[in-house]
Design brief:
By secondary structure, the protein is an alpha+beta fold. Helices cover 32% and strands 21% of the residues.
Length: 84
């Protein structure tokens, strides 16, 4: 059973792992896979104000484009403001 994924050495690997998980396991759809690197990971370390899109949360969001196995981050919002 997988509850969360984290990384302290290659943070970008988390995005790749979450996008791959639905193809590796029939127990995960894309939203559930993304929760393993966002909501459940944030809650595990007490960061309850982030990790999901919900009223009252920080609104940290990334926009991703995927073409085959290639993935590119197209936009980054932190606290609801675009930063990249």
């Amino acid at each position: 059973m997988l509850d969360l994924m984290s990384s302290d050495y290659v943070p970008s690997s988390l995005l790749m792992a979450a996008l791959r998980l639905p193809f590796e396991s029939d127990k995960y759809d894309l939203p559930a896979a993304m929760c393993t690197v966002s909501k459940t990971a944030a809650e595990a370390v007490g960061l309850n104000d982030r990790g999901e899109i919900a009223v009252g949360k920080r609104a940290d969001i990334i926009q991703v484009h995927q073409a085959g196995e290639a993935v590119a981050v197209r936009g980054v919002w932190s606290g609801g403001r675009r930063v990249a």
